[in-house]
Design brief:
Keywords: Aminopeptidase, Hydrolase, Metal-binding, Metalloprotease, Protease, Zinc
Largest sheet: 8 strands, mixed
CATH class of the largest domain: Mainly Beta
Family: Belongs to the peptidase M1 family.
Shape: globular
Strand content: 15-25%
Number of domains: 5
Domain Aminopeptidase N-like N-terminal: 127-210
Oligomer: single chain
Radius of gyration: 28 Å
CATH topology of the largest domain: Immunoglobulin-like
Bound molecules: (3S)-3,7-diaminoheptanoic acid, zinc ion
Domain Peptidase M1 membrane alanine aminopeptidase: 250-463
Mean pLDDT: 97
Pfam family, one: Peptidase_M1_N
Strand order of the largest sheet: 6-5-9-3-2-12-15-14
């Protein structure tokens, strides 16, 4: 289990310039095989070329091709079959390589250029890892990023090897009428025995991770798009036939994305077709294969009865994300996998900008920061902390992390903040002009930003080198006589595993100053904090001590420490001109109250009553919700939503999840009690029976209404049950139905089980709706949640083979029901470790991700710390029986 290091990057000794593939899906020749079973033969013809200038090895070195779970049937060089006596090639079982040595020298007259053909047998039907070529439902599909192509054929499976691909697929026509691959369709035709074929050609050289192939019997919707230069692109989205009525939103989102990338970045689509295929079994959200995206159904299918507002928003975002990859990822790709954030951080930033433009920028920013704080801050504070450009990995799939993606996007956002929109665009233009068609590095991106703007980004490199979340401390002082306000900003980043000390980062801190009357005295300005500590002076500040509004829009991925009284926070909640910071003030006000209550409860005491300032501040938000003149109710809803438990846990020196849960419930109940009539008024005013529309106004209305409902259900009494049960019965869209069910599921009495049964029946087997049904129960705040989850693992609809279903139940429980996962008796830990072991045998990527639920064990109070550690030890003890993916996570967690 050798890790790979970023520092060991060398160019390959050989390039592959042309890759011709033949896929033959045929009946399984094994007489014992079940009826209808198939195997696939893949014949690959590669034009191999010696890397003349950059290849690290002298002479004619060995060619070592990656391969995993392949059965080699035939191999030829320049059309000549190679002998199988070990003299011409070598198959190394332990390292999964096909090695060609002396053969090359002879075949290429000492030049190193030749044609290699292999024919392998693969078994998509028993590929439960969902990497490589596999079956989902009745369709065959592929997932190659990061290193799945080697499970299809022997190859130089690394992103800097870019080839032109031609693909021919042959299959039984009746069962698999649809045959797709990347690029343009060149030919189709009939074959003997009811079989047919299709041939595809992708004119753009690409790395193997962007390859895709699909064969199935699917339905679709078709549309078209005229690009800014006037070319027509055929757009088609495929799904199982019964889901074709849920594709329209994805199509609309795709067309919006195409327009937006032209408008904002001048980037145009480059092929004549753009295909998207939705499959039910998928490890991640979606995949940006050139011209043929493959999506998890959860990120495509939507209709009001089956998808929530959040689903609609997420679909729009992910469709855009994969589309934007066509430039940031495909046209310009990564030199090696350590550079993953080059394409992912950049593309997440681009999809965030897009969603901001489609709806409300402030709402989008709040949603993104909530996720970053909950997930990425946690990752950064544990043993798996890594820089956005990691230094080593064992299994690349373990590095598709919140740090690489979401913090990576924050780093891109900081360029944007430091350069402004126009400067950032100049940098992007230069990046694409310099690197179109090549595989590059994060340093190349940074250089483009610097060179296009004449700006020094050398210190900025530390964001790529150092792990951990910086803590920025702010202290202000006002000199009334001089009318001068001085702001001292200091930064410190705690050591992380393997990186005990850190150098100061280059941090953009956007600030404004407000007068006591709410007027903006100093408008938003970006301070550049580069030293450990710096003081910034603001002159001519009139009207007494101002209230600073710091880190506006969350201008850097840091934790801000600043003394703010409840009064200042209430003031900012009401008056800050920066919408994000109005929300931020509400969160800080709530956090302070929750953490104080938690401390009291953990010490066996009773929490103090809520400060009247806090109650009044929340009352004002509720009152604003009654205003019908265009207020953004999503913003209000988020201001009313208390910070989530994972974020709050990260604020505690010693993590006490159950006390925290109780502290948070205490604050929520207190607010609900103090403002019951106000919550009820808003709830009733917004509880309208109107047609379902996915507009920011309507989403905001539902969001605010449902937040009120959740407050009104915190006191677990008969009134709450009646309210939630009625909301559930009256719901006419999934958003309202799931919001009501989520409340009901944590309340006592038989109503919840009745509602769950109705929900289950109404789902009529729809997999995405059933996922919600499982999640709601895993997230419930009930004394017997763990027993219910146990029982659900034996439910006929539960499956370890479907990642969505598995995560809906087990992932939700382990990552989002902290009080139950971390329950005193340790049963939550045992259950999750059991599940890691069970799923690891089928799907290591899914298992490894779940195992991450234990990684912060050192930060918990003693009892839990020991119990979590013993589950990690138990996983470690499996030894060779553990997948490399899970081994990497478990062993790192123990560091
Ligand atoms: N690039 C893919 C992720 C592939 C994950 C491989 N384990 C999706 C995306 O970020 O767009
Ligand atoms: Zn991506």
């Amino acid at each position: 289990l050798q890790p790979k290091y970023r520092s060991s990057y060398r160019q390959p000794d050989y390039w592959i310039r042309h890759t011709d593939l033949l896929f033959q899906i045929v009946p399984d020749p094994d007489p014992e095989a079940p009826a209808g079973a198939t195997v696939t033969y893949v014949t690959s013809t590669l034009t191999v070329e010696r890397n003349a200038d950059g290849g690290p090895s002298p002479g004619i070195p060995n060619l070592e091709l990656d391969g995993e779970e392949l059965t080699l049937m035939e191999i030829t060089v320049n059309g000549q079959p190679l002998p199988w006596d070990g003299s011409a090639f070598l198959l190394t079982a332990e390292s999964d390589l096909l090695v060609l040595g002396k053969t090359i020298e002879a075949a290429s007259a000492g030049k190193g250029d030749f044609t290699l053909q292999t024919r392998v047998l693969i078994r998509p039907e028993s590929n439960f890892e969902l990497s490589g070529f596999y079956k989902s439902g009745s369709a065959y599909c592929s997932q190659c990023e990061a290193e799945g192509f080697r499970r299809i054929t022997y190859y130089l499976d690394r992103p800097d090897v870019m080839a032109r691909f031609k693909v021919r697929i042959e299959a039984e026509k009746a069962k698999l009428p649809l045959l797709l691959s990347n690029g343009n369709k060149m030919a189709t035709g009939e074959l003997d025995g009811g079989r047919h074929f299709a041939e595809w050609e992708d004119p753009f050289p690409k790395p193997s991770y962007l390859f895709a192939v699909v064969a199935g019997d699917l339905g679709s919707i078709v549309d078209s798009y005229k690009t800014m230069s006037g070319r027509d692109v055929r757009l088609e989205i495929f799904s199982e036939h019964e889901n074709v009525d849920k594709l329209e939103h994805a199509m609309t989102s795709l067309k919006k994305s195409m327009r937006w990338d032209e408008d904002v970045y001048g980037l145009e689509y480059d092929l004549d077709v753009y295909n998207i295929v939705a499959v039910n079994d998928f490890n991640m959200g979606a995949m940006e294969n050139k011209g043929l995206n493959v999506f998890n159904t959860a990120f495509v299918l939507a209709k009001p009865e089956t998808a929530t507002d959040t689903d609609y928003e997420r679909i729009e975002g992910v469709i855009a994300h994969e589309y934007f990859h066509n430039w940031s990822g495909n046209r310009v790709t990564c030199q090696d996998w350590f550079q993953l954030t080059l394409k992912e951080g950049l593309t997440v930033f681009r999809d965030q900008q897009f969603s901001a433009d489609m709806g409300s920028a402030a709402v989008k920013r709040i949603e993104d920061v909530r996720v970053l704080r909950a997930r990425q801050f946690a990752e950064d504070s544990g043993p798996r902390a890594h820089a956005i450009r990691p230094e080593s990995y064992m299994k690349m799939d373990n590095f598709y992390t919140s740090t690489v993606y979401e913090k990576g996007a924050e780093v891109i956002r900081m360029y944007h903040t430091l350069l402004g929109a126009a400067g950032f665009r100049k940098g992007m233009d230069l990046y694409f002009a310099r690197h179109d068609g090549s595989a590059v590095t994060c340093d190349d991106f940074r250089a483009a930003m610097a060179d296009a703007n004449g700006k020094d980004f050398s210190q900025f490199e530390r964001w790529y080198l150092q792990a951990g979340t910086p803590v920025v401390t702010a202290k202000g002082a006002y000199d009334a006589a001089q009318k001068r306000y001085s702001l001292t900003l200091s930064q410190h980043t705690a050591g992380t595993v393997g990186q005990p000390s850190k150098l100061p980062f280059h941090i953009p801190v956007r600030v404004g100053l407000l007068g006591k009357d709410g007027r903006e005295l100093v408008p938003s300005t970006v301070l550049e904090l580069k030293e450990a500590s710096q003081t910034f002076e603001f002159e001519n500040v009139e009207g007494g001590t101002p209230v600073p509004s710091l880190l506006r829009g969350f201008s850097a991925p840091v934790r801000l420490k600043v003394e703010q009284s409840d009064e200042d926070l209430a003031f900012l909640m009401a008056h800050d001109t920066d919408s994000f910071n109005r929300w931020e003030a509400s969160q800080k006000l709530a956090s302070q109250a929750i953490l104080a209550a938690t401390e009291a409860l953990a010490g066996g005491g009773t929490p103090a009553p809520l400060a009247p300032t806090t109650v009044d501040a929340f009352r004002a938000v509720l009152k604003a919700g009654l205003d019908d003149t265009g207020v953004d109710r999503s913003l209000l809803a988020y201001a009313l939503s208390l910070p989530d438990e994972l974020t709050l846990l990260g604020e505690m020196d010693v993590m006490r999840p159950v006390a925290l849960h109780e502290g948070r419930e205490h604050v929520k109940k207190s607010l609900a009690a103090a403002l019951k009539p106000e919550f009820m008024d808003v709830y009733q005013a917004l509880d309208k029976d109107v047609p379902y529309l996915v507009t920011p106004q309507e989403i905001g209305r539902r969001r605010m209404k449902n937040v009120c409902l959740s407050y009104l259900c915190t006191e677990k009494d008969a009134g709450a049950v009646a309210l939630a049960a009625s909301a559930f019965q009256r719901a006419t869209c999934m958003t309202d139905s799931i919001a009501a069910l989520a409340c009901l599921a944590s309340l006592p009495g038989p109503e919840k089980d009745e509602a769950l049964e109705i929900f289950y029946t109404n789902a009529k087997g729809d997999p995405l709706v059933l996922n919600k049904w499982f999640s709601i129960q895993a997230l419930a705040d009930l004394p017997d949640t763990i027993d219910r989850v146990h029982a659900l693992t034996r439910h006929p609809d539960f499956s370890m083979k479907n990642p969505n279903r598995f995560r809906a139940l087990i992932g939700a429980f382990a990552n989002s029901n902290l009080a139950r996962f971390h329950a005193e008796d340790g049963r939550g830990y045992v259950l999750v470790a059991d599940m890691v072991l069970a799923v690891d045998k089928l799907n290591p990527q899914v298992a490894a991700r779940l195992a991450g639920a234990f990684s912060l064990w050192r930060k918990f109070e003693n009892t839990r710390r020991n119990m979590m550690k013993s589950q990690l030890d138990r996983l470690m003890a499996v030894g060779d029986g553990l997948s490399r993916d899970t081994f990497e996570i478990v062993s790192q967690s123990l560091l």
